[in-house]
Give the backbone structure.
Amino acid sequence: MMNEDGQRGILRSLDWLTIAIYVALLGLGWMSVCGASYDFDQAGDILSFSSRSGMQVVWICTSVVLGALILGVDERFYESFSYVIYAGFLILLLATPFLARDIKGSMSWIKIGSFSIQPAEFAKFGTALCVARLISEFDLKLNKFRHLLVAAAIVLVPMGLIVLQRETGSALVYLSFFLMCYREGMPGAFLFVGVAAVYYFVAGIRFSQEPLLDLPEVSMGTCLVLVAVWLFSSGLTYVYTQLRKPFWWMMGTGLSVMVLSFLFAEYVVPFDLNYVFMGYIVLMVLYLLYLSLRERVIQYFYIALFAIGSMGFFYSADYVLYHVMEPHQQDRIEVLLGIKDDPKGVGYNVSQAKIAIGSGGLKGKGFLNGTQTKLKYVPEQDTDFIFCTVGEEEGFVGCTVVLLLFLALIWRLIHLAERQIYRFGRVYGYCVLGVFFFHVFINVGMVLGLTPVIGIPLPFFSYGGSSLWGFTILLFIMLRIDAGRNRLKRK
Amino acid sequence: MLEKDYQLERRKYVLGGVAFLVIVIYILRLFSLQFMNEDYKKNADSNALLKRIQYPARGAISDRNGKLLVYNQPSYDIMIVANEAKHVDTLDLCRSLGITPEWFEKRMAEIKDRNKNPGYSRYTQQIFMSQLSAEEFSNFQEKLFRFPGFYVQKRSIRQYVNSHAAHILGDVGEVNPKEIEDDSYYQSGDYIGKQGVERSYEKKLRGVKGTEILLRDARGRIKGAYQGGKLDQAPIPGRNLTLSIDIELQKLGERLMKGKLGSIVAIEPSTGEVLCMVSSPSYDPHLMVGRQRGKNAIALSRDPKKPLINRSISGRYPPGSTFKTSQALTFLQEGIISPTATSYPCSHGFRFAGLKVGCHGHPAPLPLIPAIATSCNGYFCWGLYHMMNNRKYKNVQEAMTRWKDYMVSMGFGYPLGIDLPGENRGMIPNADYYDKAYRGSWNGLTIISISIGQGEVCLTPLQIANLGATIANRGYYITPHVVKEVQGEPLDSAFTKRHYTMVEPQNYEYVVEGMRKAVTGGTCRAANTPMYEVCGKTGTAQNRGQDHSVFMGFAPRENPRIAVAVYVENGGFGATYGVPIGALIMEQYINGKLSPASEEKAAVFENRTISYGERAR
């Protein structure tokens, strides 16, 4: 009786809009896999099971069945068993390196019969369930450092285990859980500092050898970091303190110093204006310290600390990279950041990816008509670099549609998460959207040459059962939780 | 129930906004990649599309009776894919191909040298050895399975049915840089006609290259046709040529000229079609095909007898007495002589004012017809003398100009325009020439030897044969040509138009009669035959060494079918070589075969050689 009512209630309260987006992405994803794995030589049946496009149909069908099964289970099951599921995944992840075969240096694939599965793809939903349960059960206040640490530990343990499987890319995905932490109260400064650190590292080192415009002696990387330190500090002053005058004062003096020294270097005597910028930042730090003493406001002190820390981080990262690390480690990072051209490796992948996408134009070359991806100019063309196929065959229009669908999915997930009455559902929802966002952000960014090359799949597009099942489970548990929200209210 | 923290709920806008921002940045990036830069498209095309040229079949060449002379034969290039050929037993390979290991090493170094071979890639086929014959290839093919990374590519090269007519057929070779510059059709490695009709009919024979657009994967392997071959252009095969040459006649001519230097040219008077064109010494056209081409061509070009030169059109010779026919025609037309009333004395030659041009013994004085028949020097010297001194011209210069106009109208002094490369114009002096040579002080006597085809006058054997044709036609010729038909095209109008000489037809009859008399009872008796009426004229062209033996004639007298010129360097009297060879040529063409007696005679001439020794030329 209750069950029957529940089933009908689910169908009525299920968020069909998300399902529609899911179906649309699956369809476009399948077309892309067809395009990427199509072989001109054997222009045969794209539905044949010997081809990847045929196998992807199998993965899609099983995913849909899986989704339906998930919807059939009472939502309280997921909450109740979250710890068990999490523990199970930890054991599996721990065991994986011992069971797995070495595939291109990765120890993350377990072979079952003729199929291989990647537990790391499934551990995400386990971790998400666990962290959601923990936060809601103990009502963790994430603005409290100790509480945040507990939540972080839940995330970092599986992440560490995945690093041990030498799947750094998949491990980095777990950083996306901090987006949820931010929503649940983690101070924004934490997230901001994290983003700033990544920015300093990527921008600073990526462009350290390149000149600023036509001034050969000025390192663009250092300049980008120094300008960012100034802008970030000014911004923090605006957000975290009451007085407006120091903000305008910092903006004004900074801007004029930079413009004047640039003009001087450009038109009078060329010199390394980074020294001027650095001197300015030292003065700015002194000014902030002075303000903290005068106004008795601790925030100024923190901001000064941020500026000092930023500089320290940047110069030590530079030092560690070029003086502490082994040459082959340096190489890896340099290639990852695109400093070194590696015609056979990452640099080649990205430049070929750009050629493939760039050749698509407005409308693309049409379904199955792309040449770059099929002829293997783009490596990993049906997995990590699948977005190239969209770019080449469907063009700007197709790419924009795909990106907007992902944006719609993320927005819709925000909406779903926010309408949960219980914190468990909301936390889980934010974990899901964080994972999707991270995958799209890194994967598409890497193909477009904007983010470092980290080998993670594009949800619903990249070929493979594990990732498709993983994303489906992640999404459908959220849909199931959301569908049960009204019943919970009634009680 | 969850208590709402509205302060924190606002953070959803931050997260949603960040996602929005990222997507917008990505869309802008896509915009710049896909619209702002055409390079990506070009890069993609040069990555993936391989334009491969498809060579058309070159036109075949056959003789006037449809006998095939030149066709295309497959030859085989051995290709290597370096990346796949790492584990090949080199010694075994060298043995199978008949090469030395040193040659192998050298060749591999050449292939891998990007300066010499800019298109080198480890993954694609590179030419290892070119133009293997079918036998060489079949030997190698049996063992091919032992040599992974080695492939065979079929090409097409010229092949000759027999070893004759090398000068007419010519040859094909790889284009040189200048030819590429002159005609953008060609690319390095293409073949082009170098000599003969291969060169003059290059544009008809070569056809039009096609292109095939292929998909090439990242390792350079071909993965099929682009867009299902929609943009491919099929090659258009070259046009076949039918020569006017009768290959049997040509064979006989080459036989007869063995061991002698010189030329035979036979023309069908009514059409200007060249029936045979022998230049001796000749060479075997097979030498100019295949891997040995370069070596053979150098050896031939160094031969002191210059076998590569087509003497029939490039050789300049004094025509000797055959030229007297043109003089007779000129004098008749100008009214200098009367066909029957004029007789000139000849006492063993032309003697006047201390000048003497010798002549053999014959009754004198003679009128025109017997003068032609006996080839009287005196008659024609007097004729020219009277023309140059004639009052109807203002001065000797004007007379000379008039004379020259006649000569030019008969096809002398300029290239006739035959469809073969390398035609010489010969030499017909004019008044200016003598004014310069003698500083204005000259007269009819100074130049008297031109009347008997000596002195400054030079003709090519083709021009002599063409003279025979104009006489046979009684006053016109059609530009001689060796190609009778280009498949699917009408013949160039230049080869159908009649060129009339300045001499009226009735005057030709006297000359024809003279030439007939020469055969029946004059210098050309050896050419006489009861089968048809032969007309002929000998020539014995004086020369620093032994005289050249010349014959010009045509047959039959009415409705002539063949006009022929024979020129044997240092052959002595015209009757010694010229007449009998000319007679055999006529017989072969008119009867289609030689009688047993003639066959014996041919064998005699075939074996008779002239020793040229180390002549100071």
User: Anything to note?
Assistant: The first strand of chain A starts at residue 101 and ends at 103. The two ends of chain A are 16 Å apart (CA to CA).
